[in-house]
Amino acid sequence: MRRPLIAGNWKMNKLIPEAVEWVAGIQERLPGLPDAEIVLAPPFTHLAVLKLRLENDSLIKLAGQNMFWEPQGAFTGEISGAMLKSAGCEYVILGHSERRLFFHEDDAAINKKILSAQSSELKIILCVGETLEQRNGGQTEDVVKSQLQGALEGIEVDDDLVVAYEPVWAIGTGLTATPEQAQESHAFIRSILGSILTPEDSLKIRILYGGSVTPDNSRDLLGRPDIDGALVGGASLAVEKFCAIIASLN
Length: 250
Ligand code: PGA
Fold this sequence. Notes:
single chain, 250 residues, alpha/beta, TIM Barrel, eight-stranded parallel beta barrel, 11 helices, 8 strands, binds 2-phosphoglycolic acid
């Protein structure tokens, strides 16, 4: 049985006082919501502050939104896996399409980051997904397959790996993959994971959907057999919306 995972990716949003308020709000509401692993990826500067707030809270886990692959050194502006770990992270998001697009991260860089994250004992949420042009050109499967194979080359994958399918055209646009489109891609991703691992082991890996997930569409998406949770951007900023998405697991 795969435990659902709902992750909030705040991107470059919220100041520390707002983040603290959000955490207090979700801590109040979570006990009444369906069981799920809840992961929050705030900006780096908020992590240690939120970790203190979450000290006695095993329900909410923290994630970095990115990291560099080197363990330390003269890399101005970068942050290491060990730093994320010491700030209280259990997870790190890698390969987000905004990293690929704005910061030119390719599969080889993501591969190095995955290796480094593993050596810092961080769990990885690996994002893959096609652009609209690629979808319209019938390339969705080729793109997703090469992203997965490139990112995971030489990596020992275990069931701590989480994959997020995030069609680029659905991120922050209000467009969402239909539940059928998303399910089809998720099943395809699982089949690729099955060829990297074994088909049996691929059944243990959680595949999240991301891209304009809201309380209005989450129930339909989360109800599909290969959709094991959601990576939520915009709708994770409001605690009510994020909780409504968790509630739709019921
Ligand atoms: P969105 O972002 O929910 O705002 O579309 C999702 C993501 O980028 O992870």
